[in-house]
Design brief:
The complex is a heterodimer. Chain A has one domain: Rieske [2Fe-2S] iron-sulphur domain (Rieske Iron-sulfur Protein, 3-layer Sandwich). Chain A has one helix and ten strands, in the order ββββββββββα. Chain B contains 27 helices and 39 strands. Chain B has a five-stranded parallel sheet with strand order 3-2-1-7-19, with no helix packed on it. In chain B, strands 9-16-10-11-12 form a five-stranded parallel sheet, covered by helices on one side. In chain B, strands 21-22-25-24-23 form a five-stranded antiparallel sheet. In chain B, β13 and β14 form a beta hairpin. The longest helix of chain B has 18 residues. Classes of the chains: A mainly beta, B alpha/beta. At the A-B interface, β1, β2, β3, β5 and α1 of A face α18 and β39 of B. β2 of chain A pairs parallel with β39 of chain B.
């Protein structure tokens, strides 16, 4: 697990990005206090999900309003697709990501 | 010089006169109204639904206080006129106010007839005429008990049904052998009696009231056969008589009512009379349709464009008791030269009767199914020859020309001249045209634009069928389009409730309005944020997380996740210093594309998000600020060079454009707002397809609005002409403020205009100086919270998290 910073660095009902080599990771913090991470690419046209409006445990992509479920990375509703999820752990107010999934994918 | 118009009475008829007059000649008269009731103008036809609880008083108001203010009308509420001096040409109110007039309208309405039996003035004996009566009945009904309604006509039966609905035990006493004998034949009267009885209302016909009993308060009614019926409330609804006493004492010619000619002129050339108080050609009137017709005639005469005048016409009536369908029109008395066609199904309570004279329908009574009422009524008014379709006539229009039976067929078969709304005299063709030309899509739209079904509402079904017929599948009868899946409320409801309930934050609003999702969605959140921001300027704290990314980072997101940057160039003007700064920024940050926009600005495309604050810092240093090209806000004011350079220019269009832009930048709006100022009618700034445009002319400035040149192409509407730049600025700011307060989120000005109509906008922004000034002041107030350059703020460090990654891990590493 990789320490990427303080939970409080992420706005509530918002997101921050983490640069990980070729990938941008979007780290979301919900109003309910949960943290999720996804590869920052909408399955539709690769829009930056980190820039979308976060509502409940979903985010709406800023490019064409696709809605993505934060926990599963799955597209909600009539459209279909999936963004890669990244395992997250929050400990002592710090956010940790498990980036091994990316190495698998990049390989 | 404006003439003084005084109106005695504030009912529906004079209300309609003024509506039409203000439409034809705004500002022609200085109007004062004396109203004996302490209220504004409301829809008396709808008192029954208020009594039964189906509507509230607020829902039946026709003109609210704002209307009087907008039209500069002085309304003296609760001030009865006690004297009319025709020599001095003045009237005197009961509070002593003396008001001179050039023209006078007497609209004193009618008085309920009180049967002068012993006990008629006991407390607890009411009439059914105005809102005071309804309030008194509602008070009595609170504790339940026994009620007697004397009179089995329209009003009496509606009162009886309403009181029953409110939990009283009701008996109707009717002098004649059958109910509503003026509108119904005996057979239909009998069906109606049976229906009322099945609802638990007792009906006694042939009942002659001898006395009202009670010692200090009403306790019952005694009939002439000795029957005594106990009651704690007695409502007398036996009819009305014109209220002509003021006119009579002033020496006007009076018969049963105030005598008028076909233009509603009384025997005094400066005095008109209208409504239930008049007598025309031996008739007096109590239904709204002829009264509105009189009002139109009178207004046209006052406006100096007299029309053909009032003519007595066949009338149609509907009983407004929910669940009872009853329609009657024309004349259905028996006579030797008349035949009748009757369709009767006693078990299902269906009864239709047509009275035929010389192959023409002269009367129709429908009970149980009134869908064909409009069609029969049209046949009566047209005096149409029905010999060809006599066989199937009674089955209605669906069979008249052999067409298949279809629920829509009856409406489709009506000619364009067929009257749909009897109250307001609106025919089918007018409604169809309004739907087509003004893009109407809901019942509310049709009511607003044509007034059809806006009074008694009994033609609502017909209007909905017309909408459906005209729009096909585009018509959604669930008239209110919800904002999004998170609520059933439409944008208008939400805006109204924010004000009404004083909602001041998104969580509070979602709680109070029972949002269906916990935090809304990407559709409703930005809308709610805007509504709260524009409703409570300086008080509401903008919720950044409810804004679309462009408004959060003050730049436009592009397809690859980079941003575009457009600095403001006031009125489209720039200079070497600004251009040099732009050139330097483009080189320094390796910006791939630089382009001129349609709004006379320079757009730098492909800026990396993390570079935005540095780009802005350099632009700020040269005096360039945010151009809000990313916001639902004032975008650009495009100009031509005007009198500065152009040999055709009539005014300083560039200067005015700069002034407007400097005054209005930063203001958030429901959707983007683009403006332009052209220095002459050649219109080089293309102002006539903008949200707001100004065309300069020698004599001043033409203010245009509601243009479009995007998804839709639409030329602007002319709002008004003003003489000075100051006035132009005030009108434009007031217009934009009205839009800020009324617009639905993402609704451009031209769509807002189509929804609310140009009249209401003009009334607020042009006609009524006080309203315009108030709008202007609210705009100015809100501006003090919005005119800070968002780029400079972010250069200064605000929202830094938006522009920097949380962490940069150059290479992904395996877990430790």
């Amino acid at each position: 697990m990789q320490d990427v910073g303080l939970l409080d660095d992420i706005p509530v009902a918002g997101a921050r990005t983490v640069k990980a080599g070729a990938f941008d990771i979007a780290v979301f913090r919900t109003t309910g206090g949960k943290v999720f991470a996804l590869v920052d690419r909408c399955p539709h046209r690769a829009g930056p999900l980190s820039q979308g409006i976060v509502h409940g445990e979903q985010v709406t992509c800023p490019l064409h309003n696709w809605v993505i479920d934060l926990a599963s990375g799955e597209v909600v509703g009539p459209d279909a697709g999936c963004s890669q999820t990244i395992p997250v752990r929050v400990e002592d107010g710090r956010v940790h990501l498990d980036l091994t999934v990316l190495i698998d994918e990049a390989a | 010089m404006t003439e003084k118009l005084v109106v005695i009475g504030n009912g529906m008829a004079p209300g309609r006169v003024l509506d039409r007059l203000f439409e034809a000649m705004p500002g022609a008269y200085d109007v004062t109204i004396f109203n004996a009731e302490p209220r504004t103008n409301y829809d008396r036809i709808l008192l029954s639904p208020v009594l039964s609880g189906e509507k509230s008083y607020e829902e039946i108001v026709i003109h609210g206080d704002g209307w009087y203010e907008r039209h500069g009308v002085r309304l003296l509420k609760g001030n009865r006129v006690v004297a009319l001096d025709r020599q001095a040409k003045s009237v005197k109110g009961e509070d002593g106010t003396v008001e001179p007039y050039d023209k006078l309208i007497i609209a004193t309405g009618s008085q309920p007839i009180i049967i002068p039996v012993p006990g008629h003035n006991l407390p607890g004996v009411l009439t059914y005429r105005d809102m005071d009566d309804v309030e008194a009945m509602l008070l009595a009904a609170q504790s339940g008990g026994l009620a007697v309604v004397i009179g089995g006509g329209l009003l009496g039966l509606e009162a009886a049904a309403g009181l029953k609905e409110r939990g009283m035990d009701v008996t109707v006493l009717h002098l004649m052998p059958t109910l509503m004998e003026r509108q119904l034949d005996p057979a239909a009267g009998h069906l109606l009696k049976r229906e009322l009885e099945s609802r638990g209302i007792r009906v006694i016909t042939g009942a002659n009231t001898e006395a009202i009993l009670g010692d200090g308060y009403v306790s019952g009614v005694r009939l002439d056969d000795g029957t005594e019926i106990p009651a704690k409330l007695v409502v007398m609804a036996v009819g009305i008589r014109p209220n002509a006493s003021l006119a009579k004492s002033a020496g006007l010619d009076v018969g049963r009512g105030i005598l008028v000619d076909k233009h509603m002129r009384t025997s005094d050339p400066d005095i008109y009379a209208v409504g239930e108080c008049v007598e025309f050609a031996g008739n007096v009137y109590g239904l709204v349709a002829p009264l509105y017709e009189m009002a139109n005639v009178l207004a046209d005469d006052l406006a100096g464009t007299p029309n053909g005048g009032f003519a007595d016409q066949a009338l149609a009536t509907k009983l407004k008791v929910t669940g009872i369908d009853l329609f009657s029109a024309g004349d259905f008395a028996d006579a030797d030269d008349r035949d009748e066609i009757v369709l009767r199904d006693a078990r299902t309570g269906l009864y239709k009767r047509l009275v035929i004279e010389e192959n023409r329908v002269v009367g129709a009574v429908l009970y149980g199914d009134t869908a064909d009422g409009a069609w029969f009524f049209q046949l009566i008014r047209d005096r149409a020859d029905i010999s060809e379709m006599r066989d199937t006539l009674i089955f209605g229009p669906a069979y008249a020309d052999g067409a298949a039976l279809d629920p829509m067929a009856a409406v489709a078969a009506l000619p364009d001249s067929a009257e749909i709304c009897g109250c307001n005299g609106v025919c089918k063709g007018e409604i169809g045209t309004a739907i087509d030309e003004q893009g109407l899509s809901s019942l509310g739209d049709v009511r607003a634009h044509t007034k059809a079904s806006a009074s008694c509402g009994s033609c609502t079904g017909l209007v909905e069928q017309l909408l459906s017929l005209t729009l096909g599948d585009d018509y959604n009868p669930a008239a209110v389009q919800p904002m999004c899946g998170c609520t059933d409320l439409g944008h208008a409801d939400v805006r109204r409730l924010i004000v009404a309930k004083g909602l001041k934050s998104i969580p509070e609003l979602m709680q109070a309005l029972e949002w269906k999702s916990s935090e809304g969605c990407a559709k409703c959140r930005p809308a709610l944020n805007y509504y709260l921001l524009s409703t409570w300027p300086g008080e509401y704290v903008d919720d950044n997380q409810s804004r679309f990314i462009n408004e959060r980072v003050h730049a436009n997101i592009q397809k690859d996740g980079t941003y575009s940057v457009v600095p403001r160039m006031w009125g489209g003007l720039t200079n070497s210093r600004e251009l040099r700064a732009i050139a330097d920024v483009v080189d320094k940050f390796d910006i791939p594309t630089v382009k001129c926009t349609g709004g006379q600005r320079i757009d730098m495309l492909g800026v990396k998000k993390e570079d935005l604050p540095s780009v802005w810092a350099d632009l700020n240093a040269a005096g360039l600020v945010s151009g809000h090209a990313y916001g639902k806000a004032l975008r650009t004011v495009k100009t031509c060079v005007g009198t500065d350079w152009c040999r055709f220019g009539t005014q300083d269009s560039t200067g005015l454009g700069v002034r407007i832009e400097k005054f209005m930048w930063g203001s958030w709006t429901p959707a983007k707002v683009k403006m332009a100022v052209s220095g002459c009618p050649r219109n080089c700034a293309e102002a006539t397809c903008k949200d707001v445009g100004v065309i300069c002319v020698d004599s001043g400035f033409e203010i245009h609005f509601a243009g479009a040149a995007g998804l839709d192409i639409k030329g602007t509407e002319v709002l008004c002409h003003v003489d000075t730049e100051d006035e132009a600025l005030e009108v434009i700011a007031a217009l934009v403020q009205l839009y800020r307060e009324q617009g639905h989120y993402l609704e451009r000005i031209y769509k807002w205009h189509a929804r609310v109509g140009i009249d209401s906008i003009r009334a607020a922004v042009v006609d009524d100086i006080a309203t315009r000034e108030a709008l202007f002041q609210r705009f100015v107030y809100a501006q003090q919270f919005s005119q800070t350059d968002p780029w400079a703020e972010r250069v200064g460090g605000r929202d830094a998290h938006e522009f920097q990654a949380m962490k940069d891990l150059s290479f992904p590493q395996a877990a430790e």
